[in-house]
Amino acid sequence: MKIVAITACIAGIAHTYIAKEKLETAARELGDEIKVETQGSIGVENELSSEDIRDADVVIIAADIGIAKNRFKGKPIVEIPISLVMKSAKGVINKTREKLEKVEK
Amino acid sequence: MEVKDILDQSVIDLKMNVSDKHSAIEHLSQLLYQAGYLSDLSGYIKDVYVRESEGITGMGNHIAIPHGKSNFVKKVGIAIGKSEKMVEWESYDDQPVNYIFLFAVPSDNENAKVHLKLLAELASKLGNDSIMKKLEHCTHFEELEEVFST
User: Fold this and answer.
1) Which position among A3, A4, A6, A9 bears the catalytic label?
2) What is the per-residue pLDDT for B3?
3) What ipTM does this complex have?
4) B119 at A interface, C-beta within 8 A
5) Fewer Cβ neighbours under 10 Å: the N or C end of chain A?
6) Domain tally for chain B?
7) A51-100, pLDDT tens digit by residue?
8) What does each C-alpha distance from B32 to A62, A82, B20, B41 come to in angstroms?
């Protein structure tokens, strides 16, 4: 599964970046591809390109603040609080896969 | 600049003797204040608690990352404390903590981008389980530097 994701927390100092690392590690271990954009106090980093989004199977938005979604039009989006990633990033990716499989059936 | 450049020995205490969350935050804030990172100690601590009230800062793996975005922060920094005893802390895995990373970030951070970026890099390392395991065994500043250099 090809995933694009955004992480963002309230202060934009720590959780945003920890969650990115956790998602990347979990995806790698589960054999999925992922690119994670962070929206934090230093602005947008590792920005998702339109190609990244076009090629993705699913979008995960792990955020405690509002994130603009217009660039993901037509894509399945999974929106979750960042705490779910902190608790179990693998759980988030597995759940995402389940949802996606249901949609495809 | 690299991540390890943001580590400052004067605000790191790897043999911290604290009994609870409050004394841990106070002790580390005090170190930041003495080293010139803060303009007002109690004002800063208050802002740390504001962030605490907004959500959990216990990351699991016995690590906590309280952080104050505050008008009373003069320069970006991070105080690190390792407690001899486990300390009760609200955390994602419901376990107490013994490693505390207290972030100090100015409210107006336009001029602090470089340091904030280092802080973000450091935070991302805290999301990495193998780095966390190495941290567990650090007892000296040099070892901590080493872990964050990889």
Assistant:
1) A9
2) 86
3) 0.87
4) yes
5) C
6) 1
7) 999 999 999 999 999 999 999 999 999 999 999 999 999 999 999 999 99
8) 32, 28, 19, 9
Q: Least CB-CB distance to B128: which of A10, A25, A38? A: A25
Which one of A10, A41, A64 has the shortest CB-CB distance to B109? A41
Contact B119, B103 (CB under 8 A): yes
Nearest CA in chain A to B69: A11
CATH number, residue B136: 3.40.930.10
Q: Is B72 on the interface with A (CB under 8 A)?
A: no
Q: Which of A21, A41, A83 sits opposite B116 (nearest CB)?
A: A41
- Would you say how long chain A is, in residues? 105
**Which parts of A11-105 fold into alpha helices (H)?**
15-30, 50-55, 82-87, 89-104
Q: In chain A, what are the domains?
A: 2-104 (3.40.50.2300)
Q: Which residue reads 């993901």 in tokens? A: A72
Catalytic-residue membership of A9? yes
- Quick one: tokens of B135? 């941290």
The helix-helix angle for B113-126 and B129-136 (nearest 10°) equals 90
Contact B113 A42 (CB under 8 A): yes
Q: How far apart are CA A10 and CA A65, in angstroms?
A: 6
One digit per residue, the tens of pLDDT, for chain B of length 150 reads 788 889 999 999 999 999 999 999 999 999 999 999 999 999 999 999 999 998 899 998 899 999 888 999 999 999 999 999 999 999 999 999 999 999 999 987 777 788 888 889 999 999 988 898 899 889 999 999 999 987
Provide the domain limits for residue B130.
3-149
Q: Please give the model's pTM, rounded to 2 decimal places.
A: 0.91
Residues of B in contact with A9 (CB under 8 A): 55
With CB atoms and an 8 Å threshold, state whether A17 touches B127: yes
Tell if the CB–CB gap between B67 and A17 is shorter than 8 Å: no
